[in-house]
Amino acid sequence: MSRFVEIRRDLHQIPELGFEEVKTQQYLLNYLRTLPQDRMEMKIWRTGIIVKISGIKPSKTIGWRTDIDGLPIIEKTGLPFSSTHEGRMHACGHDVHMSIALGVVTHFTSNPINDDLVFIFQPAEEGPGGAEPMMASEELREWMPDEIYALHIAPEHPAGTIATKPGLLFANTSELFIDFKGKGGHAAYPHETKDMVVAASYFVTQLQSIVSRNVDPLDSAVVTIGKMTAGAVQNVIADHARLEGTIRTLSPEAMDKAKSRVQALLEGIESSFECESEIDCGSGYYQVYNDPEVTGRFIQFAKEKKDIQFVLSREAMTGEDFGFMLKEIPGMMFWLGVGSDYGLHHAMLNPDESAIDKAISFITRYFTKLGHV
Ligand SMILES: CC(=O)N[C@@H](CCC[C@H](N)C(=O)O)C(=O)O
């Protein structure tokens, strides 16, 4: 088994949520300290790390970003290296992303190129978002890349596939947290109460009209409620209900429209169910927009490589706070095929690990070409 597959398995066992990546950070630091240090410098930013490898004759800085957090999911893969953290799982492939980043760092510590390289191990991609505050940090501003790259695993493509497109790749996102408060009471006396299970349920149903009736059909949007909590016991009418979800849109205008409709529907629920509500839009991510020139160059390179299958992809409604980096730095993101029967955010996601060494080899060849120009 390759060293980086072993690393992926180690990291897979210790998933941590955004800004709690303490063991993950320590694991990464321990590994990075075993590498030749003569060209390498490191900085800590909260639970993240920034690594710089100085080039031989630098004219620019090339950046690579990996995310490092896991999800609040109970793993059901049954793998011998399953998560040892109860209720936490690397179900979005960040363990694979990190092992690939370490593989690329390892290569360039012994094979420097002309240009400087900066590797960003970024916390909290799944939420509340590490990229935006990291971009504003002094630590990263001092080593700001001139162009930047990142990947995300793609379960639907076989290992060895790279898929991307110029322009818009991932959606604009906004989290959504809504609390409903009313007068609870005995299950047998509904007329004396304001039932928050019923209010929240009507609201979830009404939300479905935003995509079907408010967003321009030629635009695209998603409104998903992923979590609904209410009540304490079977024979008490609930005085509180909470919904947690996310809005995704391809255009910033559709996001504004969707949010204003959520607000209007809430006001309707408050008046028809005589209750109060509180809305919190949590964190929002800027769309991932691939720089057309950088992406064109990347696609050309990928198409020439015999060991890579290149696929021109479509936009996806996934979100990625890497969008905040691409807003300021020209660069691009691509999908890396890992052929899994179960998709992202699924408790049975099981990426094909052969993609790890393929990706390391591809990225090191690409950066070597870029860094010598
Ligand atoms: C690639 C991926 O799956 N990213 C996440 C980002 C989540 C952002 C935020 N917590 C939200 O739900 O809006 C995704 O769910 O797309």
From TrEMBL:
Pathway participation: Amino-acid biosynthesis; L-lysine biosynthesis via DAP pathway; LL-2,6-diaminopimelate from (S)-tetrahydrodipicolinate (acetylase route): step 3/3
Pfam families per UniProt: M20_dimer, Peptidase_M20
GO molecular function: metal ion binding; N-acetyldiaminopimelate deacetylase activity
Documented EC number(s): 3.5.1.47
GO BP of this protein: diaminopimelate biosynthetic process; lysine biosynthetic process via diaminopimelate
Stated family: Belongs to the peptidase M20A family. N-acetyldiaminopimelate deacetylase subfamily.
Protein name, UniProt field: N-acetyldiaminopimelate deacetylase
Organism: Domibacillus antri
